[in-house]
Amino acid sequence: MPLTYEQHLEKSRVINVLSSNGHFRVSAIKNTGVALEAQKRHQLPEVPALLLARALSAASLLAVFLTGEERVIIDAIGDGVVNKVTAEAIQVGEVRGYCEYSDRVKNLSKDEFDSALGPGIFRVLRILYNEPEPIVGIVQLIRGDISSDLNYYFAKSEQIFSIAVLDADTDENGLINNSVGMIVQAMPGATDKEKNEITNVLEHLERLTNLIKPRDDLSVILKNILPWDFNILKNDRVDFFCRCSKENFMEKLLTLNYHDVKEMKEMGQNELVCQYCNAKYYLDDNDFNNLLISIKAKTN
Ligand SMILES: [Zn+2]
Known about the structure:
Elements: H1 5-9, E1 13-19, E2 24-30, H2 32-42, H3 46-63, E3 71-78, E4 82-90, E5 94-101, E6 120-127, E7 135-140, H4 147-157, E8 162-170, E9 176-186, H5 192-203, H6 208-211, H7 218-225, E10 230-237, E11 239-240, H8 246-253, H9 258-266, E12 271-273, E13 280-282, H10 285-299
Parallel strand pairs: 5-11
Antiparallel strand pairs: 1-2, 1-10, 2-9, 3-4, 3-6, 4-5, 6-7, 8-9, 12-13
Helix pairs in contact: 2-3, 9-10
The structure holds zinc ion (ZN).
Zinc ion binds next to loops.
């Protein structure tokens, strides 16, 4: 079915701009559609949905600065009623994520979302082409709202001046109705005066969900927010997308031993669920037999 004009305007997008003097790059995102899809796929209560929305934004915003199929993963792991929020994005506009939490999360109001993770760690992983191992930065969770934690990570782990602003909101039914964010990063040549100026602008910004609505054009909003002119480098669609498949799962099962797979078959444990997107795959007798033959062939 073709999109209506309104649906077209509401599509999740991420934009990357460079200030005219080349001293700052900015990525900005509106991903209400993506965050709502994540909430629905995982049937998330309000608070985990708000945290995941921010993590999805953070991952997509950082991925904009990568090339090709380089990836970035954001993890927040805590001791609270939410144990884990994770989001993974690749540059071409795909993002996926999930949240682990206990039932007690339902006792929290949405204003308390930043207390849900409790004490813990915040981790940023970058999987880059020219690096053999992922580049990992870990800091303590400083507030648990993902936004402050990402800023703390920037301050502690990165050499580059960067500021993140992430925001998300829900409607009266607890469903995501707005999710937005931006990251400003200094480039070589940025002066302290310019850094102070942009810091001041971002610190005095109104709540970002008040400034950016799902149908807004990000480039127009950035013109209102940023104190300098800029050129648009990228303006891309973002989609909730997972590359899982039944074939991938079956490949992983090949690493199990013969008796475990045989037991799975006998117990009727034939459902495979993707953690990232909640897709379900089912193994039939044929699949099990093929797996068992392959595993036996490998061990012989
Ligand atoms: Zn999946």
